[in-house]
DNA sequence: CGTCATGTTGAATATCATCAACCACGGTGG
DNA sequence: CCACCGTGGTTGATGATATTCAACATGACG
């Protein structure tokens, strides 16, 4: 199962810091000098759809950057149902949840086949000590996650159809910022996952999407979304 | 207006790093050596109830630690109503929202008279460079904020009375970890604020509290809460 | 071709928000 | 001192909205 709009990726077994910078989209690598001699190379890791990268309570070792593929971060409650906390796609950072307790705080599950860059935390900290720019980028990345959490909690007490529309907008802009089409994309997660993420039942998500489709704002073919009138989405 | 259970605080105009450590409750200062000669001293700042410490879009200069008093972080929407994103009390850190854009992302409002320790971010970073322990503490503090965001988003799609009960539990344990009574405390914020924070209307909050009171689990006198049966709260 | 997982749609129900009346308290000014 | 008013809080009635239960459709996969 492959994303139809997936860029063709070279699949080298390692990424350099330059690659990491580029993926994080925080800076053009050309802005920084002296990288060629950096010995740091980060292993790649492939994960099949449905498998976990890490599980809750597992010892915290590394952060991950998504090279391609899609993931979800979930928390399983005692009565078996899971809550989706966030999704991750190409260029996204995850694993920060592990820092505080030295154990991961969530499960990270691959929604599709994925390739990840593994960044051992200790190694990262060591690199930070010799590189002020990298330090800055770490702070920026972490605080971006903080803001993402804040903006998500704003979805509370907004009506369901609006919430779903916002979700589509967010997805669209994620694709746009990565060079893919923002009008025509795939939702790699199930309706149930979307509902869990938004705090809605899967039926409500389905209904909201159907309503938008019959209003001519979007067109749906299973998980394939086409946004016909972006201005009306808001 | 003063918290009846407020510890008597010396009100020196400055705090040292040792004080900061102690307040953050991340480590006993005795674990660390070589602090006496640290020149860093952080100014205190007093704010009256109802006033803002910083406003959204204001240039990011400093982080703050609450020495005493209570605050709320809010976001005003276009149509005038405000959303409460978090509360802060003694020992809490805030201002991290400003890192990413170099401008604060929320308004911080004093709920009661407050005293804050002002920690200029640049100065903090400089200190971090000469102190690995402090670096670790920064990462821990930031990632604790991340986890707090995660656990808050779990409140979504849980029923209103449960949500209010959870809120009380959280408040109780906050007081407990600071050495105050966890059975007998004051909610410094209005019902409206609680509702906004939990994504409920103020009436629903009031009803939930009343229900718990008439069930004999808690007793309410305006903003003064007494928890009679902690085990039933869950 | 059957089976399973996923998604859609309908009807009934529960939950929460809204509107509104009312109470308690604190402060103000006569 | 007391009448007045405003804010914050409680409680009730009503209606909107989302959940739940259920039936059915569709595509994927062996």
Can you walk through the features of this model?
The structure is a homodimer of 234-residue chains. Chain A has 234 residues and is of the alpha+beta class. Helices cover 35% and strands 24% of the residues of chain A. The first copy, chain A, has 7 helices and 12 strands. Chain A has helices at residues 17-24, 121-129, 132-153, 160-177, 191-198, 202-214, 230-233; strands spanning 14-16, 41-47, 52-54, 62-68, 71-76, 82-88, 93-94, 107-110, 114-120, 184-186, 218-221, 224-227. In chain A, a hairpin with a 5-residue loop joins strand 5 (71-76) and strand 6. In chain A, helix 4 packs across helix 6 and helix 5 (191-198) crosses helix 6. Chain A starts with 13 loop residues before the first strand and ends with a helix. The A-B interface holds A 75, 83, 85, 96-97, 99-100, 105-106, 125, 135, 139-140, 142-147, 149-150, 152-154, 156-157, 196, 199-200 and B 75, 83, 85, 96-97, 99-100, 105-106, 125, 135, 139-140, 142-147, 149-150, 152-154, 156-157, 199-200. The structure holds a DNA duplex (30 and 30 nucleotides).
Low-confidence stretches of chain A: 1-9, 34-39
Shape descriptor of chain A: globular
> What structural class do you assign from the helix and strand content of chain A?
alpha+beta
Distance between the termini of chain A: 31 Å
Biggest sheet features of chain A:
5 strands, antiparallel
> Taking all residues together, what is the mean pLDDT of chain A?
85
Strand content of chain A: 15-25%
Name the pair of protein chains with the most residues at their interface, and give those residue counts.
A-B, 29 and 28 residues
Evaluate the radius of gyration of chain A: 18 Å
């Amino acid at each position: 199962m492959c994303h139809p709009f997936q860029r063709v990726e070279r699949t080298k077994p390692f990424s350099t810091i330059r690659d990491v910078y580029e993926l994080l989209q925080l800076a053009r690598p050309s802005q920084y000098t002296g990288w060629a001699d950096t010995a740091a190379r980060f292993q790649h890791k492939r994960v099949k759809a449905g498998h976990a990268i890490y599980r809750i309570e597992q010892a915290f070792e590394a952060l991950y950057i998504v090279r391609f593929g899609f993931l979800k971060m979930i928390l399983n409650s005692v009565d078996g149902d899971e809550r989706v906390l966030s999704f991750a796609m190409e260029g996204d950072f995850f694993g920060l949840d592990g820092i505080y307790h030295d154990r991961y705080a969530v499960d990270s599950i691959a929604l599709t086949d994925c390739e990840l860059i593994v960044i051992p935390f200790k190694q990262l900290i060591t690199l930070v000590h010799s590189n002020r720019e990298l330090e800055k980028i770490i702070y920026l990345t972490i605080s971006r996650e903080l803001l993402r959490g804040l903006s998500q909690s704003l979805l509370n007490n907004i009506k369901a159809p609006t919430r779903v529309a916002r979700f589509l907008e967010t997805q669209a802009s994620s694709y746009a910022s990565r060079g893919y089409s923002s009008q025509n994309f795939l939702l790699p997660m199930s309706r149930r996952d979307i509902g869990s993420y938004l705090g809605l039942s899967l039926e409500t998500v389905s209904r909201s999407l159907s309503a938008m489709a019959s209003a001519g704002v979007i067109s749906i073919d299973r998980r394939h979304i086409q946004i016909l009138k972006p201005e009306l989405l808001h």
